[in-house]
Amino acid sequence: MPTTQRATNRGPAAAGANRRALLDAARRLFAEHGYEVPLSAVAREAGVGQGSLYRHFPGRLDLALAIFEDNYAELERLAADPHAPGAFSQLWRRIIDQTLESRAFVEMVVEARRQLPDVKVVNRLPEILEDPLRVAQAAGLIPRELSVHDLILAHRMIYGVIVTETDPALARSSALRALAMVNPALSWSDDERDTA
Amino acid sequence: MPTTQRATNRGPAAAGANRRALLDAARRLFAEHGYEVPLSAVAREAGVGQGSLYRHFPGRLDLALAIFEDNYAELERLAADPHAPGAFSQLWRRIIDQTLESRAFVEMVVEARRQLPDVKVVNRLPEILEDPLRVAQAAGLIPRELSVHDLILAHRMIYGVIVTETDPALARSSALRALAMVNPALSWSDDERDTA
Amino acid sequence: MPTTQRATNRGPAAAGANRRALLDAARRLFAEHGYEVPLSAVAREAGVGQGSLYRHFPGRLDLALAIFEDNYAELERLAADPHAPGAFSQLWRRIIDQTLESRAFVEMVVEARRQLPDVKVVNRLPEILEDPLRVAQAAGLIPRELSVHDLILAHRMIYGVIVTETDPALARSSALRALAMVNPALSWSDDERDTA
Amino acid sequence: MPTTQRATNRGPAAAGANRRALLDAARRLFAEHGYEVPLSAVAREAGVGQGSLYRHFPGRLDLALAIFEDNYAELERLAADPHAPGAFSQLWRRIIDQTLESRAFVEMVVEARRQLPDVKVVNRLPEILEDPLRVAQAAGLIPRELSVHDLILAHRMIYGVIVTETDPALARSSALRALAMVNPALSWSDDERDTA
DNA sequence: GATGAATGAGCCTTCATTCAT
DNA sequence: AATGAATGAAGGCTCATTCAT
Fold first, then answer.
1. Residues A34, B114: C-beta atoms closer than 8 Å
2. Which residue is nearest to nucleotide E1 (CA to C1')?
């Protein structure tokens, strides 16, 4: 039961970089081929050995959760200063954009929930949205009747629109149209230059 | 996990019955375990040999499409008489209920779309909804500003809500809440006895 | 996720033959390379697909238990007629010979016991030996003071001798020497022609 | 499952200590989980880096041989003064006890022999036993007809008994019973306090 | 036609071994 | 000299698909 002769080994130095590469690869491949891509493909795409993938992320779910984590972290940065001008609007757009970027998200959420006994996959959006929403409502930018929970429900609805979109190129405009149906204040005209 | 245990080799006789059994089994297992259940499990659940499964449905997708077909057929029956009282309302509810019954639908649609070059998975809802909607609008039951495409978009939104619901028991009420957000005329109070 | 093109498929007819081929291959490879041989090697040696191996024997242990079973079955045949002349002596020799044939037996037993919660790997030797031993004692061939349990202990001792033998060619004579040490009535002179 | 948690990188200082820690860990894990425990587990249990394990012991076998070595060294200390009262008896008991302590010994021996062309795994028991045995025989404590080789054969028999024992708690008494069968002079009554 | 065993590609995972730090 | 991450071969297992009966 002997083993092998390897080629390159960039040593433990690559540890951090590998983790990042794996996350990026996973994000890319999940988006492109769905949540069920072979993990071996993720390792290959990341330019990393199978073993390293497993060291960093013992299971597919850990990869998914780490991506969630990243996304949440970005949103939390955006939500950190609720009084900045356009804080809510930027935050909300970013949430929708993240969803557009990862069509596989639904599958991930579904699977994550199927597999994790209970909490674990906490929805952190409520806390993230709370302050920015209040400020935006005080400024009259968002109708008072919209609660944080309404927004989260709206977000889930957008998931549905995105994931059922035949042509990826249309996903964004469909999502905006859907948002407008829910409440015009939650949508925006996407005139090519990402204007609000 | 077998639910429907058929007896033994019933010979060529059971030809038609097998098809039904397979569809039922697939519907059940897709709902319970997701679109990716082993096809062998479907055959087993149907009490049918592996080979028969393949004769009737050469691939997973064919199974999914046949289920779509069934659903559409049911809806078309409902839409056949647009002037029957409550025609639109019943049709619309059934659409939502079908969606609730098959949480795996999203995955199926997604996968079906990913794999089929183009058409093939035609969305037949537009024709189905057209007449009943017009009649309902004429009767003042549904606002004029809602187009067939709006309804289809709403349907896709409901997909999202259902599939992201943590607790299956809450799926229905979340869906209704979401519909109400889109347009109150599309929702209904679900007072336990499925009343409209 | 399509699959493959196979070469030969002798159909379900081969079912029984495959099982036998797998058992034979396992017996051979366990003996030659120890209990930890790759199961894939067993399948290859048996000229059978990986999947068939798993259908017949879901785990390594099932293979081991089936081999035990075979051995026991042979011994039970031998023990069936305790009054046949030389019944005990033949039975006892066969037990020792089986042990010589499968040096990997110790590992198997050890592993089987490590993995199976409790009983399951029943030692069937007591019942097998009981009647033949009594008859042999009545005939004055075996000393009265040897109980069935003593024989089983002796058998375990022989295991130890066989498995620790450096040169396989010496295993048999070492075992006989060991038996003679325990009790001369349990050994025999092995003058090339398997005489008792 | 870590038992011995060492602190952190203690630098080149701990050179010698590491070797000891590795041996202890290996002895423990071999006994607990069998000879095939992952070497990484040994390193972890020893609180030592993977690399250090390899520096000290290039392969699994080296670890096993070092353990043998330790055992032999202890026995040689005991055999150093054959005329001390009870020298043989203590030596013999210790041999049996060592065997009881490492049930994995059989596997190790078997594997060691399988892998090493020839000598290398020298059996040092003959020299160790020689003088103490002669003295004990002269004193009438051990029958003259027992040769050193008989003792070694008896030892191998005890291996078999120990390794096939289902319940580890019974291993010792089974071994003693077996020894008594071989020759009462080789056994002893183990009345709880390890008395001879 | 139905049946169910057979097949084997491919994925997940483990672990011996190397090597930058 | 120690550390621990990286590497990749290899083995276990699953499952889509075929095919003799």
1. yes
2. B12
